[in-house]
Amino acid sequence: MSKREDDGCARKRKTEAGYKSEDCMNPDSSVIAAFKVFQQELDTKHDKHERLVKISRDITIESKRTIFLLHRVTSVPDVEEILTEADVKLDGVKQKIGWIAEELKGEDLHQFHRAFTPGIQEYVEAVSFHHFIRHRTLISLEEINACLVFMRENKGENEVAWTGPSVLTFQITPTDYLLGIADLTGELMRMCISSVGNGDIDTPFQLSGFLREIHDGFSYIGNTGPYEVSKKLHTLRQSLGKVEDACYTLRVRGSEIPKHMLADVFTSRAATHLERDEPMA
């Protein structure tokens, strides 16, 4: 018998043995029943994870649109109209966060946290930007969480089950809050550039002091906080440096530069500042 024939016979014996093993499998085995339960639980968890990822993506998109809308406050005469429109958009985002609260009802939040954390961070960035424009202060984590309360209808599964409204809450984690605030600093830096371009030389100095306070707060955390927070500290410092550089330019050379050219000068200096801060490869 040749080697090829011998290999073919070996594969045939293995195949026949495999079929024999499956044929002898007891469908009523407790082990098989347990693994079927595990399979169903894993499929249910995977489906929930995918739904949360989709909701988080929608929250991210709507939050970014709200931020883009809020940047128009530097170029319109009626700021309150923009803020009111942003309120409506943020209410829509909060409804989607309510969907996350429904999905997490009775579940461990940390099992699914990575599925929805990008959207929550973007929402914190949007709502804190909106709050700063209206009040010139930093919104707290408690203030954000206080607004994430949702009323839902309980639907009984049988005649005996109780039906009626229930209250669902969603609590943003301190890490997601800090990451969202760190991203807020970039939007404030862009707001500073836009303000200068529109002839507003007071807003940059307000933003400089506000960003300095945020930076000092993050400095207290330092390397003792979550890894993601420490990574964003470098970007925060860049944003603060650009705004402070703009204030220096306005204070020292503001009277020499025409107002319609301030934004161009400011942007070029910000780009130079960014190149100077980039780490060496």
Question: Would you write up a description of this structure?
Answer:
- The chain is 73% helix and 4% strand.
- The radius of gyration is 28 Å and the shape is elongated.
- Helix 2 runs antiparallel to helix 3 (79-103).
- The protein starts with a helix and ends with a helix.
- It contains nine helices and two strands.
- The model is unreliable at 157-162 and 276-281 (pLDDT under 50).
- It is mainly alpha-helical and 281 residues long.
- Strands 1-2 form a two-stranded antiparallel ribbon.
Summarize, please.
The chain is mainly alpha-helical.
Q: Would you identify the regions where 5 or more consecutive residues have pLDDT less than 50?
A: 157-162, 276-281
Average pLDDT taken over every residue: 81
What structural class do you assign from the helix and strand content? mainly alpha
Total strand segments: 2
> Which range does the strand content fall in?
under 5%
Task: Name the shape in a single word.
Answer: elongated
Q: What letter string, H or E per element, gives the SSE order? A: HHHHHEEHHHH
Gap between N and C termini = 64 Å
Q: Helical content, roughly?
A: over 70%
- Cα-atom Rg, whole angstroms? 28 Å
What strand order characterises the main sheet? 1-2
Number of helices: 9
Major sheet attributes: 2 strands, antiparallel
* Oligomeric state, counting identical vs distinct chains: single chain
